[in-house]
Prior knowledge:
Layout: H1 3-28, H2 34-61, H3 68-81, H4 85-114, E1 123-128, E2 131-136, E3 145-148, E4 158-162, E5 165-168, H5 170-173, E6 179-181, E7 186-187, E8 192-193, E9 198-202, H6 210-219, H7 227-258, H8 261-275, H9 278-297, E10 300-302, H10 305-312, E11 314-320, H11 321-325, E12 331-337, H12 342-353, H13 359-368, E13 377-382, E14 386-391, E15 394-399, H14 401-406, E16 419-425, E17 428-436, H15 443-452, E18 456-460, H16 465-474, E19 479-481, H17 486-499, E20 503-508, H18 514-519, E21 522-526, H19 532-537, E22 540-542, H20 550-583, H21 590-608
Parallel strand pairs: 11-18, 11-20, 18-19, 20-21, 21-22
Antiparallel strand pairs: 1-2, 3-9, 4-7, 4-9, 5-6, 5-8, 10-22, 12-17, 13-14, 14-15, 15-16, 16-17
Amino acid sequence: MSERKENIVKIILSAFLLGAALLFTKIIFNDLPYYINLIFFLPSYLIVGFDVLKEAGEHIIKGKFLDEDFLMGIATLGAIIMGDFPEATFVMLFFLIGETFEETAEKKSESALDALLEIRPDTATVEIGGELVSKAAKDIEIGEIITVRAGERIPLDGIIFEGETRVDTSAVTGESAPKTLKFGEKVYSGSVNLSSVIKIKVTSSFEKSTANRILELVKNATENKAPTERFITKFAKIYTPIVVGLAVLIAIIPSLIFGDAKSHIYSALTFLVISCPCALVISVPLSFFGAIGNASKKGILIKGSQSIETMSALKTVVFDKTGTLTEGTFTVTAIHPEVVNADELLKIAAAVEGYSNHPIAQSIVSYFAGENDLCVQEVSEISGKGMRAYANGKIVLVGNEKLIESYGIEYKKCHHTGSIVHIAFDKTYLGHIVISDKIKEGTSEGIKALGGMGVNAVMLTGDNEASAENIANELTIADFRHSLLPQDKVTELEKILDESTGKVAFVGDGINDAPVLARADVGIAMGALGADSAIEAADIVIMDDKLNKLPELIKISKKALLIAKENIIFSIAVKIAVLLLSAFGVSGIMWLAAFSDAGVLVIAVLNAIRTMKI
């Protein structure tokens, strides 16, 4: 039997015995001796209170006794000593009801995260001696070929080596529509193969697979606590000993001045019952935990509750351009030769760019798609500028304006929109190639929605002014900064941080974005296509790369923080009200104190779990 079901049985049995005890001692018989009342009420009390007393005893031995178990134990035992048996049992009964409700809510909030465990298969199917054999996924090496049948979940990241199928990526990216994938296309672990048998060439280890990284990010999320959450933890540690001291004063000082010690001790015990900070300690972390689980179901991975609090105060979002606002799938749209013909210009550029993994370089190589007999040597990449190589002992330059200018070569400016790649050979300018990118799906809607929420958008890019202005105008981004080297992006971000009246987020995907992601108040990585270093440096990962999820993330964060603050105010207000009643000696309210404590807990928890449905 689960602990929750066991608690429910205890509550029902204790309530039945309590009712029977009240019937015999208050209605059928009255004014019974102390020990007879004790015999009637003790079973009901112990059924719901034994575990609390046991925990309190263990904590006292360990020197950690100022917690809710200690408060409940000392208050109820004191009530029993004074003969207030029904009140003592009510306190324990309501306390267990509150704890059971809390556990139910926590299980519900954890269920969304527990469901993620299913996205990571522990085994993979490989072919050995003509037979398909199951093998531990962690033992599969990069480059090995695995077979995935229709209906199976893909265990490791890779590319399709054989076959074509439809794949459900919803568990990884939150995107509901299946995708058709064929030979050479990427597949991510955690996705479900829907229609046909495929063979996959593994490109990442089990530990670095998409599914495993998602699980690790989510499992570690609760370790990064928000300031509000840390405040509650510190508050409880200071608050509990203070109220214990006040309870002692309430019991002693009025008794010495006014007499009637029993009444004042009762008030002190009631004070202890009310003082339990259960609702605060439980509901505030639950608010953030629920928001993290809710976001994960939508394909947004939040590494910790601190990021939720930061996102709720967001005023500016700074975007990288390539691969973030745009798809990063470039194509050649124009060739402008000067000295050589177009084919020769393209051949020279492709020979050098073949040594680079940059999307722009690869687009030139793909566009040429012919046999290249030009032999280049000593090829090197100059960060933020382009490529340099040697052919026949002479320098070949392929890159942006800054690269050409650094060698003192005159060049022609291009008024086409896009990225301009200039080519020079032996200090002679040969011409340039225009490369264009297109805006990602959902980006325009996301930027527009951010503006409607009062959040400013800024774009940082290494592109030239014309190319940057074209994208900025299309997305209605008023503030854009162009021709930036990787280190320049950090400098520009620091300026924005100084100027902003609220929190600043940076959204990027490339390896060069990692320093900027780490420097921002909150770093957001585009996860599905993003570099590992960017994902590691980021606080939040959007798995499907769609920026229209940003406004949704802000809504979740604002709602979670609002709910946490509501619970703090409500819990403290109720406690202060009942504490004042107790401190001024209002008698007979211990049962009300217990009910208000459990009731506040239940209401706060109910409020907290609303973060799961935003």
